[in-house]
């Protein structure tokens, strides 16, 4: 099942997004057993990501070596589990978190790749409001041990495709405003329920869990 599910998605994204950019598939492995993750890796999944720092820590040495991402809410006291191991932290939602990731990265002489999380106007979710992005990027550019590679966004939980497409296009527009200035690589947007719409509207990285691994236990 995992092999077939994965192949289906890899085939779907083979032609890239609507702008001709290649799309990176990150397997969302929250609560997924290590043996199932390794089946996916053995069948062509090159990137995986966790939502919980302790789970990242516990699985890191057990999964086959690929790019390991983190995209959950991150508390300062859990950063230590990621530094020096994580390929990309998607969910950086405050200047304080940026600063702490930088501090801990400097302590072990490494540079940590991050994405700034954008808030699409939903109060219950974290992230930078659009009018905060400029200052956040300038702040990050002064940090020696953090490299911002782009943005992450979570589309609203809605059945309104027009609303979702407008949100996705807006995020892509903001990404494009900064892409060349900061040499961005990734716009991480789209999950199991909306990745096709996200890709159609400019996402070049998707975070897919249940569509690969089945429903979480």
Describe the model.
With 217 residues, the protein is α/β, with parallel strands linked by helices. It contains 8 helices and 8 strands. It has one domain (2-212): Alanine racemase (TIM Barrel). It has an 8-stranded parallel sheet. The relative contact order is 0.16.
Number of helices: 8
Major sheet, described briefly?
8 strands, parallel
Question: In total, how many beta strands?
Answer: 8
CATH architecture label = Alpha-Beta Barrel
Tell me the series of helices and strands, N- to C-terminal: HEHEHEEHEHEHEHEH
CATH superfamily: Alanine racemase
Q: What separation lies between the terminal Cα atoms?
A: 16 Å
Percent of sequence in beta strands: 15-25%
Q: How would you write the strand order of the largest sheet?
A: 7-6-5-4-3-2-1-8
CATH domain class name: Alpha Beta
Oligomer: single chain
Rounded to an integer in angstroms, the radius of gyration calculated over CA atoms is 17 Å
Blueprint of the fold:
Elements: H1 2-12, E1 24-28, H2 34-42, E2 47-50, H3 53-59, E3 67-70, E4 88-92, H4 95-107, E5 112-118, H5 133-141, E6 146-153, H6 161-182, E7 186-189, H7 195-200, E8 205-208, H8 210-213
Parallel strand pairs: 1-2, 1-8, 2-3, 3-4, 4-5, 5-6, 6-7
